[in-house]
Amino acid sequence: MSASSIRSNAELLARAERVMPGGVSSPVRAYRAVGGEPPFVVRGRGPRVWDAEGREYVDLVCSWGPLIAGHAHPAVVEAIERQARLGTSYGAPTPLEVELAETIVAAVPSLEMLRFVSSGTEATMSAVRLARAATGRAAILKFAGCYHGHADALLAKAGSGLTTLGLPDSAGVTAGTAADTLTVAYNDLGAAEAAARALPLAAILVEPYAGNMGCVPPEPGFLDGLRRVSRETGALLIFDEVITGFRLARGGAQSLVGIAPDVTCLGKVIGGGLPVGAYGGSAELMRRVAPLGPMYQAGTLSGNPLAMAAGLATLALLDDGAYAALERAGDRLARGLRRAIGDAGLTACVQRAGSLLTVFFAKGPIRDDAGAARSDRARFAAFHGAMLRQGILLPPSQFECWFLSLAHDDAVVDAVIDAAARSLKEIA
C-alpha cells in the first residue's frame, strides 16, 4: 500500500516506526516532548499545511525556518520546476551556484567568498575545521543551548563551574572528540573571556540570536565583547546564522548588530526549502579551503542546482518591504500572545526577534539555557495539544522558535492569537 493511499496519521506512524527510528528522520518530529502523534503532512500552500487525514493547520514551523515566503510560493515552485526539467544534479559547477554566491556575498557584510554545502551541520563542521586550520589550535568555545548541528565535536555540554572541558552529549561521541569543546552560558561574557584566556582557542562559535533554546536575544555588549575577546586572543569568531541569515535581515543578524565575524555559517532560507548550507569569510581566509589551500572539504550534492534555483527565487522576494512585513507580523503576534497570557492569568513570557518568537512558560526574560530550562514543559505540552486541536501547528518543543512567513498576513496572525487565547484559558 502506498503512502498516498493512507488516510490515517496513526497508521502512517505505525508503518514508519517499523522502518525508521521513532518513525521519523529527525528526533523532534516524533512529538515525544509534547505527547500524541505527529500529523503526517501531505501538502502546503501559503501559511497552511494539510495532513494525511485532510486536516488543515496554520503552520508556525515553516520547515524550521527555510520557508520565509510560505509553502509552495509560485516563484519558488516555478524555479524548481524549470531547473528540474534541465536536470537535478551534475557533479559539476553550474551558473546558478555562481549567481547565488554572488547574491549572498553582496548582501552579507563579512563575506567575500563562500563554499556551498548540503546542510547547516556541514557548514558549522567545516567552519570549525577552517578555524583550526587557520590558527593551528584545537579548542573551540560554544555556548550552552546553542545548537550547531550534530557534528561530534559540537555535541558537547557544560559541567559544573565556570567552564569545563566538553563532555559528550550523545552516545557514540567519544570523550576525546568532545574534549576540545568548551561550553559556557549564553550571554555570560565574563565566562567566555575567562575561557578564551585560559586556553588557546581556534574559534568562538555562537548564534548571534539564539534560536535553539527558544528565541533568546543577545544582551547589550555580549556580541561586541566576543568580537573584542576573539581579536585579543587570536581566536576566530564564527557566527552561526543558519537560522538568522536572511531571516532577521537581508544581511543577517550581523548587519543588525554591526559586528563582522571572521566566519559566517548559513542555511535554511538560502535554499528556499531545499537542503543547503554555506560557510564563508574573507577571501584570505577562504583561500585556505581546497583546492586553493590545505583544508579539505567536499560534497557530492554541494551546490545542487535545485537548491540554488529555489534559493535565488526566495532571496529575490526579500526586499525592504518584505522585512517590514515580517517585522509587523512578528510584533502583532507577540503583542496578541502577551495579552492572551495576561487574560488567562498564566506565568509565561514571549521573546521575539523579527519573525522568530517563543512562548516560554516561565517568568521572563530568558537570557540563557538555564533560564529556558526552568520553563514548565508539561504546560507547554498541554498548550501545544490545545493549539493543534484548533488547527495551529506549533513546533513540538518548548525550546524551539516559532517561524512566520510572508504568507502570514494579519488575518492569519489574528487567527493564531484567537486560538492561543482559547488554548491558554483551557490549560489555565
Could you walk me through the main structural features you see in this protein, from its secondary elements to its overall organization?
The chain has 428 residues and is α/β, with parallel strands linked by helices. 37% of the residues lie in helices and 16% in strands. The protein is built from 14 helices and 16 strands. The protein has helices spanning 9-19, 74-84, 95-107, 120-135, 175-178, 189-198, 222-233, 253-257, 283-286, 305-315, 320-344, 369-373, 377-389, 410-427; strands at residues 41-45, 48-51, 56-59, 113-117, 139-144, 156-157, 167-168, 181-185, 201-206, 236-240, 263-267, 277-281, 349-353, 356-360, 392-393, 402-403. Strands 4-12-11-10-9-5-8 form a 7-stranded mixed β-sheet, with helices on both faces. A 4-stranded mixed β-sheet has the order 1-2-3-15. α7 (222-233) links the parallel β9 and β10 (236-240). α2 packs antiparallel against α10 and α13 (377-389) crosses α14. The longest helix has 25 residues, at 320-344. It is globular, with a radius of gyration of 21 Å. Residues 158-166 have low confidence and may be disordered.
